[in-house]
Amino acid sequence: MNKIPDSNIKTEILIHDLKVPISVINAGARSLLERQDVYGPLTEKQLKVLNRIVRNTLATQRLVNDVLELGRSREGVMICSQFTVASLVVGVLVEVFDLADPNVADRVRKVTTCAELQEVIADAGVTLDFQKATWEASVCLDAAKVRQILRNLVTNAFKHRTARVDIRGSIENRRLTLWVKDDGRGIPRVDHQRIFETYFTTGGSIEDAIQSHGLGLAGVMVLLRDMGGDMALESDAGHGAEFKVSIPLD
Ligand SMILES: Nc1ncnc2c1ncn2[C@@H]1O[C@H](COP(=O)(O)OP(=O)(O)OP(=O)(O)O)[C@@H](O)[C@H]1O
Ligand SMILES: [Mg+2]
After folding, report:
1. Fewest CB within 10 A of the end CB: N or C in the chain?
2. How far apart are CA 35 and CA 39, in angstroms?
3. What residue ranges line ligand 1, CB within 6 angstroms?
4. Residue 180 shares a structural domain with residue 56
C-alpha cells in the first residue's frame, strides 16, 4: 500500500497542480497577443492589460517553482549544471525588472556585453561590480537554487531601496560570493536574527502584509544550508542593508 503523504507533500502536490492552470492562462493571453491574425486586432489598452497578465503569470510560475524547489532541497536533491556568473545575474535582473520595469527587462534581454548591460541598468539605479574573470567564470552549482537566492535578495533590495541597488560578486577560495546592497531604511540590529525567521516582517500596514510574507529570506536560508553556504547581513537602521551570500563551489 502507498504511504500517506505528509502535510508538506500534500501542500506541494497542490502547489504543483497550479502549474497547469497557470500555463493555460499564460498560453491564452500570449495567443491573443501573438496571433492577432487569428484572434483579431488589439487596442493599446488591451495590449497593456494582456502584457500585464503575461508578466504576472510568469511571476506566479516562478513562485510555484520556488516552493517546489524548496521541497526538493529538503529531500536533498541537487541538480548541478555548469553556468556562467553572467547568465545568473542577467537572468535574475530580467526576472526582477519584468515586474519592476518591463521596458528595462526587454532592454536587458537584448544586451550582449557587460558594459552595455551596465549602461541599461544604470538608468534604473542598479550597479554591477564584478571582475571580468568572475563575470565570465563558469560554475557548477544547482542553478535554480542559486537563482532563487539571488532573486530574493535583489527583490528585497528593490522593495526597500530609496534609489540604488548595488550587486557585487567574486570567486575566491573556491567560493562564489554575492553581495546585494540597497540604500533604503535599513534593518535595526535587534531584528538581524529575526528577519531570517519564517513569517517575520517589519511592515505594519495591511498593504505590507499583502506584499510581504516573510518567507523569502527563510527560504534562502534553507537553500543555502542545503548547499553548504552561508549568509551575512550588514545594516543599521536608516543606513541601507547589505546581504552577503557565500556558496562553496566544491
Ligand atoms: N533590503 C532590505 N531592507 C530592509 N528590510 C529588509 C530588507 N530585506 C528584508 N527586509 C526585512 O526582512 C523581512 C523579511 O524579508 P523576507 O524576504 O523574508 O520577506 P518579505 O520580503 O517581507 O516577503 P516575501 O515572503 O515575499 O519575500 C522583510 O519583511 C523586511 O522587513
Ligand atoms: Mg522578500
Report:
1. N
2. 6
3. 152, 156-157, 160, 182, 184-185, 187, 195, 200-203, 212-218, 241
4. no
